[in-house]
Amino acid sequence: MADGFRRTPASSRYALVLLGLFAAVWIALAISPWYRQDWALENVLVVVAVPVLAWGWRRMPLTRLSYTCLFVFGVLHEIGAHYTYAEVPYDAFFQSTFWFSLDAALGLERNSFDRLVHFLYGALVTPACIELLDRVAPPRGIWRYVLPVSFIMSHSLLFEMFEWLAASVFGGDLGQAYLGTQGDEWDAQKDMLMATLGSALTVCVLGMRGWLAPRV
């Protein structure tokens, strides 16, 4: 089994390196964000999640795979927070770097960075969910595949409700920037679907690699 898929806790050095790299990214993207108030809202969950992960390190350390996936997701989230999710200039980057429009090539009519990050939320957070379930209440049989995806689905629902509540409280341009629906009335449902698909893909890949086998 490849090193990245072993079910052994990450070393403290590896975890600290990722934490340091994330801190550097966070500081860099905290400088002159496009919409400071939206950036602050987007970072509420980060301010909660990072200390929780640090607290859980000694009590329930995760594997290198899980920490790496969480790090990648955190970086992508900070990019979305810096520009606002609806305005991340990924297509401009493709046009200036590769001389073609990614949106045009894929037939996209909206900024799809938020869709990508919701998909990757499901894909990248699922390994940590699998580990936590194994530590707290190890599922058996088919539930080893179903519960991690259900966990992500419930997270996505709660996050969409949090977004709706925040938009209702703050309203105006800030509320719209935070929601990032871009005029799509089914935006929340599509975001939850993308997270579910991402989680299901990860479960399938890890299942084929033997990562979902019961721990002994």
TrEMBL record:
User: By its UniProt entry, which InterPro entries does this protein fall under?
Assistant: YjdF (IPR058534), YjdF-like (IPR014509)
What are the TM regions of this chain, as residue ranges?
40-58, 65-85, 116-133, 145-172, 192-212
Is Membrane a UniProt keyword of this protein? Answer: yes
Q: Which UniProt keywords apply?
A: Membrane, Transmembrane, Transmembrane helix
Q: Which domain of life is it from?
A: Bacteria
What is the recorded name of this protein?
Membrane protein
Q: Which organism is it from?
A: Pseudoxanthomonas suwonensis
